[in-house]
Amino acid sequence: MTEADAGATPIRPLVAGNWKMNGLKAALSEALAVDEALAEAGAGVAADVMICPPATMVMVLAELSGMGGLKVGGQDCHINAAGAHTGDVAAEMLADAGASAVIVGHSERRADHGETDRIVHQKVLAAHRAGLTAIVCVGETIGQRQAGLTLDVVARQLAGSIPDNVTAETVVVAYEPVWAIGTGLTPRPEDVAEVHLMIRERLCARFGAEGAGMRILYGGSVKPSNAVELMGIANVNGALVGGASLSAKDFLGIIEAYRD
Ligand code: PEP
To answer: Are the C-beta atoms of 208 and 168 separated by less than 8 Å?
Structure first.
């Protein structure tokens, strides 16, 4: 457990792997190896662990895993529960397939699909309608950081993307500087601390005790070699991991940061 600085609320961290558009059947063995390692470690891992595979693999992973408590999530959902939206996946479908959460507002969705805060807000509502926790991603581009706009941009995304009346159970925030995703670059620890503190303050101001207990993940080039340092920063309550979550060895190396 870590303590939220603003409220001394015990927070159980979450380490979530985002497989993005990677993962054929053969990759299942990596996810199952994570679940097996969690089963062996038992209470020795003081964090929740989740993998968000492509939608094609949510059901099979949810059915085959769970022995070690591995949770399964989706990577995106449509705002509607059903309808004429070829190629899209509803939050209800993810829940039906065994997911307990869904990532929304990832910067790749914002960039590739023009997703605005307003759309992300609707996706959070869709996730909640289906009983899923929404993992809401926010983060600045390199241009915005260099222009000194990081805190403004992240605060605006936070306000616009998260609806009212959410709880620490129903929303997880993931701070992911766009320039750190998949690049091997990470912000300085003091920069991560500054953004996470601002997020915590905004969440507390808006949601009170629920905001104090909400998980704020850091994402962007988290690896076994930097996990302990990044996870040790105040108000960092876990990680959203892209590339390194594709390998059980690397993902477990990150989870090691939460070994008792
Ligand atoms: C991500 O895309 O959510 C991410 C954090 O990617 P990576 O860990 O590969 O930087």
So the answer is: no
pLDDT in tens, 11-35: 999 999 999 999 999 999 999 999 9
Number of domains in the chain: 1
Q: Is residue 1 part of a domain?
A: no
Q: Confidence band (pLDDT; 50, 70, 90) for 260?
A: confident
Give the alpha-carbon dihedral of 250, 252, 256, 258, to 10 degrees: 120
8 Å CB contact between 78 and 88: yes
Q: Is 184 among the domain residues? A: yes
Question: Does 104 map to a domain?
Answer: yes
- The CATH number of whichever domain residue 214 belongs to comes to 3.20.20.70
Rounded to whole angstroms, the Cα distance separating 16 from 108 reads 17
Q: Which residues pair with 134 in a beta bridge?
A: 102, 171
Supply the pLDDT for residue 4: 45
Q: Which domain holds residue 109?
A: 14-258
pTM more than 0.70: yes
Tell me the best of 106, 230, 241 to mutate to test the pocket of ligand 1, counting ligand atoms within 8 Å of each CB and taking the most. 241
Within 13 Å of residue 31, how many CA atoms lie on the same side as its CB? Answer: 31
Give the count of beta carbons closer than 10 Å to the beta carbon of residue 94: 29
Residue at 120 is within a domain: yes
Does the Cβ of 245 fall within 6 Å of ligand 1?
Answer: no
**Distance from Cα 220 to the centre of ligand 1, integer Å:** 5
What are the structure tokens assigned to 71, written together? 């949770």
Give burial (CB, 10 Å; 0-12/13-18/19+) of 148: exposed
Ligand 1 pocket, residue 243 CB under 6 Å: yes
Predicted confidence (pLDDT) per residue in 215-228, tens digit: 999 999 999 999 99
Contact yes or no for 102/127 (Cβ under 8 A):
yes
